[in-house]
Specification:
The complex is a heterotrimer.
Chain A (H helix, E strand, L loop, with lengths): L4 H21 L1 H6 L1 H27 L5 E10 L2 E10 L3 H22 L5 H22 L4 H19 L6 H32 L10 H18 L8 H4 L5 H10 L3 H9 L1 H4 L3 H23 L4 H21 L3 H29 L10 H4 L1 H15 L5 H15 L3 H26 L15 H19 L1 H8 L9 H22 L11 H8 L2 H47 L7 H21 L1
Antiparallel strand pairs in A: 1-2
Helix pairs in contact in A: 1-3, 1-5, 3-4, 3-5, 4-5, 4-10, 4-15, 4-20, 5-6, 6-7, 7-8, 8-11, 8-13, 10-15, 11-14, 11-15, 13-14, 13-19, 14-15, 14-18, 14-19, 15-17, 15-18, 15-20, 17-19, 17-20, 18-20, 18-22, 19-22
Chain B lengths: L4 H20 L3 H26 L3 H31 L13
Helix pairs in contact in B: 1-2, 2-3
Chain C lengths: L1 H22 L3 H21 L3 H25 L2 E2 L2 E2 L6 H24 L13 H9 L3 H22 L20
Antiparallel strand pairs in C: 1-2
Classes of the chains: A mainly alpha, B mainly alpha, C mainly alpha.
Chain lengths: ~600, ~100, ~180
């Protein structure tokens, strides 16, 4: 169709917003459930089509850039901030990823959430549409200010969706935890944006920062990234976020919302590139998170928790790549990860729906009963493990090479070990869930239906295909990419296969070996929630003490001054009122005395 | 005497005696009487100045002063009578309900 | 010389009677001493060659005001055969004396710093001059004074009237049947 790029972009953005508003306002529509469902899905399909259109036109003409903004915040010296849409090689692919995964997830939810009461479903889809809009704003933002608006919007919808089962206390608390931790991180982002504006007078990212400020500003912004993309130590909210419905975990907490942090770094790369300190910090934190999260993932019993820690770990890879200066590496892995991780979650959702439990112990032998699910899950697992041919292999390879080239040996080693562990833990999940003997829960498992099957197939195609299209993606990004066979890549693949093999050896066979039992204490430690305890102590000892100190100061010093003046007035009044004796002669005496004094002063000076 | 000062000094003395009376008398009528003394002192002053300047103005003022003093005594006595009626005495020491 | 002695006698008389005015325990005595003071003042005025004001002084002050004072004293003398005290308050005497003395010192100092003005005793001020001044130059003040006196009179009556037989207790009948 011959619509302009701007029109497509606005369609992509505003139809979900419209759906969200209608669902929010028209209460009968929402209460009936089904109308809201179809409205939301229709909106996201429109967005998807728009994204396809934009992507194909971008493919044809890679350096096309469209920037359409309005004056938004006026100030004394001209416009302070603009608002609008920026379409370029970074925002369009991300928009496509967003709409594809969102569409898949919403269709999947038709089947997954079918047992929910109608009003709850209406609410669910309302939140989904709002999320698509918010993430769209973030993706298409032309400056940091608008990006931040989208950032906060998706944070809100994340809270709403994590706490979807709000009657469940653990879910409500998880939602608050997510919000609290990301809000804490957002302090850094806000400060960074404010400082950006203060030092450069505008909110865009194509500016030169004053050298002294480059590191502080970018580090502060990275703090926000750490919260949003669940890097250590601010990753603690992501495992708890699994309390939300599984499709939500797939969309928000695997593919898109947590991706916002990495996306921001990609977007604002001109800023981050100006601070080698921040880049180094990113590489180290990313590398550490990748390894740490992978270790913790190995010992989880809840299938969603494995995937949650896996997400942390994979984002560590992306951050590390960006820290090594490879925008292509980070962004490519972001794209491929979106597909296979979302698919992993949807597959897990299919399994959970079938066995009515999250625990791996309750699964087993599902390969026979749920052929489609197991097939797509295995495809996604192979992609995650970095097996050659699947999407993850290409992007992970690029990441490793970039880190290696930069000479960051310790992060590189961490990433390599994490690659091994990644393959191991996902292999464990696959073998425990789909092979072996069925547990009692799993005996009546069956596939979910068309609504759940089709999206999984689409994502499976993406998990394979996204890798092969690396070079065309690169063209779209406006970057260079060519695939080579390198020792690093081969080494990583080998580690991956080794990991899968070890997982089979440990979990795939009928008997479990005792060889690795000496590692059990590490498992206990990993499950203990030490990081959470650390934050809790910090909060109690640090923040609360500080708060009570400030409270004391406010009560006794600030209020004290006021109270003192009040007390002074009352005391003065009490003393002074004794002058009013009620005796006329005293008053006359006062007058005369006063007159005498005044006259004397006049006479004798 | 041929000069003003003795008269003025006399008037000042009379005024001071009047002040003493106003401030030390307990009976309200006593206070009014002492006020009369003060007014009288003022009159002496006025007449002295009138004679010093050779015009009638001071004496005219003195007549006004008498008139005003009379009015003041009238109203004052009315109030004293009111006070007597409500409190059965006219001692100003005890009429101090408006104290702070 | 004679005039000085005369002045001295009158002055002494004046001040002594004033002291008795403020010092008497008996209020009637005080009023009578006041009469003496006022009459001495009138004599003083005569020596100052101001006969008109001397006459007015006797008429109004020594006549009218003394009468008023006496009435006041008599009407507030006793209640249920208990005499009301008229003494000066002992604890107020010292502060009062100080105030009075302070005032006098002030005046004396001020006087000592101003040059003396001679009295032009030979120039007579006719009664006619005074009256002319009243009716031409100061006529407004004259009229205002008369209004003031009227207001004082009415005010005093209103303030001090007895309430029990006053008009506010009269009931005006409303209907024919209520009238007697």
């Amino acid at each position: 169709m011959g619509l302009s790029a701007l029109t497509w972009a606005l369609l992509a953005l505003l139809t979900p917003l419209g759906a969200a508003l209608v669902i929010a306002v028209v209460v009968p529509l929402r209460r009936r459930g089904t109308p809201a469902t179809w409205l939301s899905i229709a909106a996201v399909v429109v967005s998807f089509i728009a994204a396809i259109q934009l992507f194909s036109s971008q493919l044809a003409d890679p350096h096309q850039l469209m920037l359409s903004t309005l004056d938004w915040l006026p100030s004394a010296t001209g416009t302070m901030a603009r608002i609008g849409i920026r379409l370029d090689g970074i925002s369009i692919p991300m928009l496509l990823v967003l709409t594809t995964v969102a569409m898949c997830v919403q269709v999947f939810s038709l089947g997954y959430m079918a047992d929910e009461p109608a009003p709850a479903r209406g609410r669910y889809y309302g939140y989904h549409s709002l999320f698509v809009f918010g993430m769209g704003v973030l993706v298409l933002a032309p400056n940091m200010l608008e990006l931040f608006i989208g950032w906060e919007l998706v944070g809100l919808t994340s809270y709403l969706l994590i706490g979807f089962y709000y009657q469940k206390q653990s879910a409500a608390r998880a939602a608050i935890k997510a919000f609290w931790v990301t809000k804490f991180a957002d302090i850094g982002l806000v400060l960074g944006i404010i400082l950006l504006f203060a030092t450069t007078g505008q909110f865009g990212w194509n500016v030169a920062l004053p050298p002294a400020w480059a590191a502080p500003i970018t580090l502060l912004m990275f703090l926000g990234v750490m919260g949003k993309s669940a890097q250590f130590p601010l990753h603690i909210w992501l495992p708890n976020a699994m309390e939300g419905p599984t499709p939500v975990s797939a969309l928000l907490h695997a593919a898109t919302m947590v991706a916002a942090g990495v996306y921001m770094v990609v977007r604002a790369n001109p800023l981050f590139a100006q601070s080698p300190t921040t880049l180094t910090a990113m590489a180290w934190i990313g590398g550490f998170t990748a390894l740490f999260a992978a270790i913790v993932a190995v010992v989880q019993t809840d299938i969603k928790r494995v995937l949650a820690y896996s997400t942390c770990s994979q984002f560590g890879y992306m951050i590390c790549a960006l820290g090594a200066g490879s925008v292509m590496g980070g962004f490519f892995h972001l794209t491929t990860h979106a597909f296979f991780k979302a698919l992993l979650f949807l597959g897990a959702g299919s399994v959970i729906h079938a066995v009515h439990s999250n625990e791996l112990e309750h699964m087993g032998g599902l390969g026979g009963r749920m052929k489609l699910t197991s097939a797509v899950f295995i495809i996604a697992a192979l992609a995650l493990a970095g097996v050659p041919g699947f999407a993850g292999f290409f992007s992970k390879d690029l990441v490793l090479e970039a880190v290696q080239e930069k000479g960051l040996w310790l992060p590189f080693a961490a990433l390599m070990i994490a690659a091994f562990l990644t393959a191991f833990y996902i292999g464990r999940v696959v073998f425990l869930a789909f092979f072996g003997k069925s547990s009692k829960h799993a005996e009546h498992a069956h596939e979910g239906g068309m609504a759940m099957a089709l999206p999984m197939l689409l994502l499976a195609a993406g998990s394979v295909g996204a890798g092969w299209f690396g070079s065309s993606l690169a063209r779209v990004y406006g970057l260079e990419y060519e695939f080579h066979f390198t020792p690093t890549g081969m080494g990583a693949s080998a580690l991956g296969l080794l990991g899968i093999g070890l997982a089979w050896w440990q979990y795939g066979r009928a008997t479990r070996s005792e060889a690795f039992d000496f590692l059990a204490p590490i498992g206990e430690l990993a499950r203990s929630g030490a990081v959470d305890r650390f934050f809790e102590i910090g909060y109690r000892r640090g923040l609360l003490v500080l708060s009570s100190g400030i409270g004391w100061f406010d009560r006794y010093v600030v209020d004290g001054v006021i109270n003192f003046s009040g007390w002074l007035t009352i005391m003065a009044g009490r003393r002074l009122k004794r002058f009013q004796t009620g005796n006329v002669q005293d008053y006359v005496f006062a007058v005369i005395a006063g007159a005498v004094v005044l006259a004397a002063w006049g006479l004798f000076r | 005497m041929m000069a003003t000062h003795p008269y003025l000094l006399l008037a000042a003395a009379l005024f001071s005696v009047g002040i003493y009376g106003v401030l030390s008398r307990r009976n309200a009528v006593g206070i009014l009487i002492s006020v009369e003394l003060m007014a009288n002192a003022v009159n002496i002053n006025l007449v002295a100045f009138s004679r010093a300047q050779g015009t009638a103005l001071g004496q005219v003022f003195m007549l006004f002063s008498i008139g005003i003093t009379v009015a003041e005594v009238v109203v004052g006595l009315a109030l004293v009578i009111l006070l007597y009626r409500s409190r059965q005495d006219v001692l100003v020491d005890e009429a101090n309900e408006l104290s702070g | 010389m004679t005039s000085q002695i005369g002045f001295g006698v009158i002055a002494v008389c004046l001040l002594l009677s004033a002291l008795f005015v403020v010092g008497s325990k008996n209020l009637v005595h005080a009023v009578l001493w006041l009469a003496v003071t006022l009459l001495s003042t009138a004599v003083l005025f005569v020596t100052m060659r101001a006969p008109f004001v001397a006459g007015i002084q006797v008429l109004l002050y020594a006549g009218g005001v003394i009468t008023l004072m006496l009435f006041g004293v008599m009407l507030t003398r006793r209640h249920e055969s208990v005499e009301i005290e008229a003494e000066t308050s002992p604890r107020r005497r010292v502060p009062a004396a100080i105030a009075g003395a302070g005032m006098f010192i002030l005046f004396a100092t001020a006087l000592s710093r101003t040059p003396e003005q001679p009295l032009q005793l030979h120039a007579t001020v006719d009664t006619v001059d005074i009256v002319r001044s009243f009716l031409t130059g100061n006529v407004l003040a004259f009229e205002v004074l008369s209004v003031l006196l009227l207001a004082a009179m009415i005010g005093a009556i209103v303030v001090a009237r007895r309430r029990d037989h006053g008009f506010d207790h009269v009931r005006i009948p409303r209907k024919r049947e209520e009238r007697g």
